[in-house]
Amino acid sequence: MTLTHLIVPDAAPAPASAKYSHAVRAGPFLYVTGQLPADPDDPAAALPEGIAAQTRLSFKNLERILAQAGFDFADTVFARIYLTDFERDYAGMNEVFFEYFPDEARLPGRTTVGVAALARDALVEIDLVLYRA
Hints:
- The protein is an alpha+beta fold.
- It has helices at 51-69, 86-100, and strands spanning 3-6, 23-26, 29-35, 76-83, 109-114, 124-131.
- The protein has a single domain (3-131), classed as CATH 3.30.1330.40.
- Helix 2 links the parallel strand 4 and strand 5 (109-114).
- The longest helix is centred in the middle third of the chain and has 19 residues, at 51-69.
- The model has no long low-confidence stretch (mean pLDDT 92).
């Protein structure tokens, strides 16, 4: 199996505090590193306010990586979502999630986890596993 490591400097915030690939392609699978709601055009900018805005920006970062890798959200087989305030933010995150996965018959598998903290005091982080034969 061939592995392809993608660093997408124009498409998502550059790895700042740790070294990692934005995504790794392993055969027909693409594993996308968790994306925070950081602005790739201004990585030092403050994160947006509220769960909807942060979730939307996390998805925009994911979308840029997927486009560079030749995938799209329809290829998603699994999503992991981390929330720092699960009870408060779960419903708002879901509203945005379903904008990107509107077909209820083709939803990816998913785990949503409440965590104590995320980098940059983000409210949300999202990673994906995709498949394209």
